[in-house]
Amino acid sequence: MNDNDTHVALVTGAARRIGAEIARRLHAAGYRVMIHCHHSRDEAAALARELNGRRPGSAAIIQGDLRDARVPGRLVDAVIAQWQRLDLVVNNASRFYPTPVADAGLETWNDLFDTNLRAPFLLAQAAAAHLAATRGSIVNIVDIHGERPLKNHAIYSTTKAGLDMLTRALAKELAPEVRVNGVSPGAILWPENGLTEKTKQEIVSSTPLQELGSPVDIADAVLFLARSHFITGQVIAVDGGRSL
Ligand SMILES: NC(=O)c1ccc[n+]([C@@H]2O[C@H](COP(=O)([O-])OP(=O)(O)OC[C@H]3O[C@@H](n4cnc5c(N)ncnc54)[C@H](OP(=O)(O)O)[C@@H]3O)[C@@H](O)[C@H]2O)c1
């Protein structure tokens, strides 16, 4: 295959954790990968070095705060400038923290909504024509709490409910050229701001498969949806049965 025919993916929030695994999995499947990061530039650069070590010129990084409405367009422009095509956008970057109703202010509302919901919309808008040209697709990383709210996380849960709807709405609007799907993780990696051991135990014991998932499970589902030709507007829960 000519290098210009190699598929290109843009993965947001790809420096660490689940996003990094998605980037690695897509790269292993042959994609060239634009690794987007915000604060984690060193981790993003290390990941790009790792991937370029396997196939030179197959990974690059771009930094940007997705709360800035100009950034989604800049990310797409950077991919096109680098590789002149775009086949897949994975909206993985997200903010997650509690917002008890009594304390939540407009700033937290905007922080969560701008990152988790507005940015995926603006990225879809900026990427649509390029994805149409390659018959590409979008995969949004949602959350099972977009369907069943997480206590004290009303704003986060609502952003993810919006992302679930955005997935289906865009699937309808961007068809037939562009497919849009989602993956809804259950408990995969504990949040870094800490949960008590008791809460962790409760989450695992309320999961029918009785364990945490792994970032690989999410990355596999993303790749499956990216490769499928006849699936659009679907959000697959990868949650060990927790949403049952
Ligand atoms: N972890 C889980 O078990 C779980 C469960 C359900 C759903 N999910 C979903 O799965 C996805 C990945 O989860 P995760 O736990 O790996 O995510 P995470 O570590 O909480 O965040 C992923 C990345 O998002 C980026 N990000 C946050 N705000 C940003 C902003 N304003 N602009 C640009 N980038 C920003 C950060 O990049 P930098 O580090 O570069 O700043 C961060 O590394 C998320 O969509 C999450 O909602 C995860």
Question: Kindly, what is the distance between the CA atoms of the first and last residues, rounded to a whole number of angstroms?
Answer: 43 Å
What's the rounded overall pLDDT mean? 97
Strand fraction equals 5-15%
Q: Helix count?
A: 7
The CATH homologous superfamily is called: NAD(P)-binding Rossmann-like Domain
Total domains, how many? 1
Which strand order spans the largest sheet, edge to edge or round the barrel? 3-2-1-4-5-6-7
CATH topology: Rossmann fold
Low-pLDDT regions: none
Order of helices and strands: EHEHEHEHEHEHHE
Work out the radius of gyration. 17 Å
Question: Any overview of this molecule?
Answer:
By secondary structure, this protein is α/β, with parallel strands linked by helices. The chain has one domain (3-238): Rossmann fold. 45% of the residues lie in helices and 14% in strands. It has helices at 17-28, 41-54, 71-83, 106-134, 154-174, 197-205, 215-227; strands spanning 8-11, 32-37, 59-63, 88-91, 137-141, 179-185, 235-238. It has a seven-stranded parallel β-sheet with strand order 3-2-1-4-5-6-7, with helices on both faces. The N and C termini lie far apart (43 Å). The structure holds NADP nicotinamide-adenine-dinucleotide phosphate.
